[in-house]
Design goal:
The protein has 191 residues and is mainly alpha-helical. Keywords: Membrane, Transmembrane, Transmembrane helix. It holds the Pfam family DUF7010. InterPro entries: DUF7010 (IPR053824).
Length: 191
Protein backbone atom coordinates (compact mmCIF):
# COMPACT_ATOMS: atom_id res chain seq x y z
CA UNK A 1 0.00 0.00 0.00
CA UNK A 2 1.35 3.42 -0.98
CA UNK A 3 0.47 5.37 2.16
CA UNK A 4 2.61 8.40 1.23
CA UNK A 5 0.36 9.33 -1.67
CA UNK A 6 -2.90 8.90 0.24
CA UNK A 7 -4.96 11.77 1.62
CA UNK A 8 -5.83 11.89 5.31
CA UNK A 9 -9.39 10.77 4.51
CA UNK A 10 -8.05 7.88 2.44
CA UNK A 11 -5.78 6.83 5.34
CA UNK A 12 -8.77 6.89 7.69
CA UNK A 13 -10.90 4.87 5.27
CA UNK A 14 -8.12 2.32 4.78
CA UNK A 15 -7.64 1.88 8.51
CA UNK A 16 -11.38 1.60 9.18
CA UNK A 17 -11.60 -1.26 6.67
CA UNK A 18 -8.35 -2.92 7.80
CA UNK A 19 -8.96 -2.80 11.57
CA UNK A 20 -12.78 -2.49 11.70
CA UNK A 21 -12.45 0.45 14.08
CA UNK A 22 -10.52 -1.69 16.58
CA UNK A 23 -13.55 -3.56 17.92
CA UNK A 24 -11.45 -6.58 19.08
CA UNK A 25 -9.95 -4.36 21.79
CA UNK A 26 -13.44 -3.88 23.17
CA UNK A 27 -14.15 -7.60 23.06
CA UNK A 28 -10.90 -8.15 24.99
CA UNK A 29 -11.96 -5.45 27.46
CA UNK A 30 -15.32 -7.17 27.83
CA UNK A 31 -13.55 -10.40 28.80
CA UNK A 32 -11.16 -8.61 31.19
CA UNK A 33 -13.91 -6.81 33.11
CA UNK A 34 -16.18 -9.87 33.14
CA UNK A 35 -13.39 -12.05 34.56
CA UNK A 36 -12.60 -9.41 37.20
CA UNK A 37 -16.27 -9.33 38.19
CA UNK A 38 -16.46 -13.12 38.45
CA UNK A 39 -13.25 -13.24 40.51
CA UNK A 40 -15.04 -11.16 43.18
CA UNK A 41 -17.06 -14.27 44.07
CA UNK A 42 -13.98 -16.48 44.41
CA UNK A 43 -11.38 -14.20 45.98
CA UNK A 44 -12.42 -12.96 49.39
CA UNK A 45 -9.41 -10.73 50.03
CA UNK A 46 -9.97 -7.49 48.11
CA UNK A 47 -6.27 -6.65 48.13
CA UNK A 48 -5.54 -9.92 46.32
CA UNK A 49 -8.44 -9.17 43.98
CA UNK A 50 -6.96 -5.72 43.27
CA UNK A 51 -3.68 -7.43 42.40
CA UNK A 52 -5.62 -9.54 39.88
CA UNK A 53 -6.98 -6.32 38.37
CA UNK A 54 -3.48 -4.92 38.10
CA UNK A 55 -1.89 -8.01 36.59
CA UNK A 56 -4.91 -8.75 34.42
CA UNK A 57 -4.54 -5.49 32.50
CA UNK A 58 -1.57 -7.09 30.76
CA UNK A 59 -3.88 -9.63 29.13
CA UNK A 60 -6.03 -7.15 27.20
CA UNK A 61 -3.62 -6.26 24.36
CA UNK A 62 -2.57 -9.83 23.49
CA UNK A 63 -6.17 -11.02 23.71
CA UNK A 64 -7.24 -8.23 21.34
CA UNK A 65 -4.53 -9.25 18.87
CA UNK A 66 -5.66 -12.86 19.08
CA UNK A 67 -9.28 -11.85 18.48
CA UNK A 68 -8.20 -9.61 15.62
CA UNK A 69 -6.43 -12.57 14.01
CA UNK A 70 -9.52 -14.74 14.46
CA UNK A 71 -11.58 -12.08 12.65
CA UNK A 72 -8.81 -11.73 10.02
CA UNK A 73 -8.18 -8.07 10.86
CA UNK A 74 -4.91 -6.18 10.85
CA UNK A 75 -4.67 -4.44 14.20
CA UNK A 76 -0.95 -3.77 13.66
CA UNK A 77 -1.35 -1.84 10.42
CA UNK A 78 1.55 0.03 8.84
CA UNK A 79 -0.93 2.75 7.88
CA UNK A 80 0.41 5.97 9.51
CA UNK A 81 -2.88 6.43 11.35
CA UNK A 82 -2.62 2.82 12.54
CA UNK A 83 0.86 3.62 13.84
CA UNK A 84 -0.57 6.71 15.56
CA UNK A 85 -3.29 4.50 17.05
CA UNK A 86 -0.61 2.16 18.37
CA UNK A 87 1.21 5.07 20.00
CA UNK A 88 -2.05 6.29 21.54
CA UNK A 89 -2.73 2.77 22.85
CA UNK A 90 0.80 2.60 24.19
CA UNK A 91 0.05 5.58 26.43
CA UNK A 92 -1.42 3.09 28.88
CA UNK A 93 2.07 1.78 29.63
CA UNK A 94 2.64 5.09 31.42
CA UNK A 95 -0.42 4.43 33.59
CA UNK A 96 1.20 1.35 35.13
CA UNK A 97 3.22 3.28 37.77
CA UNK A 98 0.05 5.13 38.77
CA UNK A 99 -1.86 1.86 39.06
CA UNK A 100 0.94 0.37 41.17
CA UNK A 101 0.95 3.36 43.53
CA UNK A 102 -2.84 3.20 43.85
CA UNK A 103 -2.58 -0.52 44.57
CA UNK A 104 0.03 0.06 47.27
CA UNK A 105 -1.63 3.10 48.86
CA UNK A 106 -5.36 2.56 48.43
CA UNK A 107 -6.12 -0.65 46.51
CA UNK A 108 -9.89 -0.14 46.88
CA UNK A 109 -9.64 2.62 44.26
CA UNK A 110 -7.84 0.51 41.67
CA UNK A 111 -10.91 -0.55 39.62
CA UNK A 112 -11.99 3.09 39.39
CA UNK A 113 -8.53 4.31 38.38
CA UNK A 114 -8.11 1.58 35.76
CA UNK A 115 -11.56 2.46 34.41
CA UNK A 116 -11.03 6.23 34.26
CA UNK A 117 -7.48 6.13 32.88
CA UNK A 118 -8.37 3.33 30.49
CA UNK A 119 -11.26 5.45 29.20
CA UNK A 120 -9.03 8.47 28.66
CA UNK A 121 -6.78 6.76 26.14
CA UNK A 122 -9.74 5.97 23.84
CA UNK A 123 -10.64 9.60 23.14
CA UNK A 124 -8.23 10.16 20.17
CA UNK A 125 -9.81 7.21 18.35
CA UNK A 126 -12.93 9.35 17.99
CA UNK A 127 -10.96 11.25 15.32
CA UNK A 128 -8.75 8.43 14.02
CA UNK A 129 -11.76 6.22 13.20
CA UNK A 130 -14.28 9.03 12.65
CA UNK A 131 -16.48 7.40 15.27
CA UNK A 132 -18.91 9.05 17.69
CA UNK A 133 -19.06 5.71 19.50
CA UNK A 134 -15.56 6.29 20.86
CA UNK A 135 -16.59 9.65 22.31
CA UNK A 136 -19.71 8.26 23.94
CA UNK A 137 -17.80 5.26 25.29
CA UNK A 138 -14.96 7.39 26.70
CA UNK A 139 -17.26 9.70 28.61
CA UNK A 140 -19.58 6.88 29.72
CA UNK A 141 -16.75 4.68 30.96
CA UNK A 142 -15.10 7.53 32.87
CA UNK A 143 -18.37 8.59 34.54
CA UNK A 144 -19.43 5.03 35.42
CA UNK A 145 -15.95 4.18 36.72
CA UNK A 146 -15.79 7.28 38.91
CA UNK A 147 -19.35 6.94 40.17
CA UNK A 148 -19.34 3.20 40.95
CA UNK A 149 -15.65 3.03 41.85
CA UNK A 150 -15.50 6.02 44.17
CA UNK A 151 -18.76 7.84 44.87
CA UNK A 152 -20.83 4.79 45.86
CA UNK A 153 -18.81 2.79 48.37
CA UNK A 154 -18.66 -0.96 48.03
CA UNK A 155 -19.39 -1.15 44.30
CA UNK A 156 -15.85 -0.92 42.91
CA UNK A 157 -15.26 -4.68 42.96
CA UNK A 158 -18.85 -5.94 42.77
CA UNK A 159 -20.88 -3.81 40.36
CA UNK A 160 -18.34 -1.78 38.37
CA UNK A 161 -16.70 -4.66 36.47
CA UNK A 162 -20.03 -6.04 35.26
CA UNK A 163 -21.29 -2.62 34.15
CA UNK A 164 -18.00 -1.93 32.34
CA UNK A 165 -18.05 -5.37 30.73
CA UNK A 166 -21.51 -4.62 29.35
CA UNK A 167 -20.41 -1.16 28.22
CA UNK A 168 -17.41 -2.65 26.40
CA UNK A 169 -19.63 -5.24 24.71
CA UNK A 170 -22.16 -2.64 23.58
CA UNK A 171 -19.30 -0.52 22.24
CA UNK A 172 -17.83 -3.49 20.33
CA UNK A 173 -21.24 -4.15 18.76
CA UNK A 174 -21.64 -0.46 17.85
CA UNK A 175 -18.18 -0.39 16.25
CA UNK A 176 -18.94 -3.57 14.27
CA UNK A 177 -22.18 -1.97 13.06
CA UNK A 178 -20.39 1.29 12.16
CA UNK A 179 -17.68 -0.62 10.30
CA UNK A 180 -20.19 -2.68 8.32
CA UNK A 181 -22.16 0.43 7.40
CA UNK A 182 -18.97 2.19 6.32
CA UNK A 183 -17.81 -0.75 4.18
CA UNK A 184 -21.27 -1.15 2.60
CA UNK A 185 -21.37 2.58 1.81
CA UNK A 186 -17.85 2.44 0.37
CA UNK A 187 -18.78 -0.54 -1.83
CA UNK A 188 -21.93 1.23 -3.06
CA UNK A 189 -19.91 4.31 -3.99
CA UNK A 190 -17.36 2.30 -5.98
CA UNK A 191 -20.06 0.44 -7.98
Amino acid sequence: MDYQNMTLKDLQKDLIVEARKGFPFFLAGTVYWLVMGILYFFIGDQQVLALCYLLGTGSIFPLALLLGNLFKLNLLSKNPLGVLGGIVGGIQAFYLPIWIVIYLENYELLPMVIGVLGASHFLPYLWIYRSKTYGIFTVGMAVVSFFLGYVIEGHAFLTLPFILSALYLVTACALIKESKAFITEKENVTM
